[in-house]
Amino acid sequence: MSNFVRLLKVFRMVFQDDSIEMNNSTTADDIEGWDSLSHINLILAVEMEFGIEFTTAEVRKMENVGELLQFIEKKTIK
After folding, report:
1. Domain residue ranges in the chain
2. Burial level of 28, CB count in 10 A (0-12/13-18/19+)?
3. How far apart are CA 39 and CA 15, in angstroms?
4. pLDDT by 10s per residue, the chain, length 78
5. For 46, 60, 64, 67, which has the most beta carbons within 10 A of its beta carbon?
6. Residue 77 confidence (pLDDT)
7. What is the dihedral of CA 44, 49, 50, 53, to 10 degrees?
8. Could you tell me which residues come within 8 angstroms of residue 41 by beta carbon, excluding any fewer than 6 positions away?
9. Could you confirm whether domain 3-76 is CATH 1.10.3210.10?
């Protein structure tokens, strides 16, 4: 399963919406209910799904799904 598909699964779980569709340019403005609290829940769920940890600086740099995926890719390369 690709990282994108895994991430989409996490988004759908966190936002409790199986109809969520996204692409690399998707931002919080594009997903209903994506506020600061759900953002924290999203980041924690992503960390658990991928077995990684983000720094506060990394989280602040993420402006869209594509950038989140880039950080996931960097942290999961073995």
Report:
1. 3-76
2. middle
3. 10
4. 899 999 999 999 999 999 999 999 999 999 999 999 999 999 999 999 999 999 999 999 999 999 999 999 999 986
5. 46
6. 82
7. 20
8. 14
9. no
How many residues are listed for the chain in this entry? Answer: 78
User: What are the residues whose beta carbons fall under 8 Å from the beta carbon of 25, sequence distance 6 or more?
Assistant: 64, 65, 66
What is the residue whose two structure tokens read 């991928």?
Answer: 50
pLDDT at 78: 63
23 closest CA partner among 41, 5, 37: 5
- pTM for the model stands at 0.93
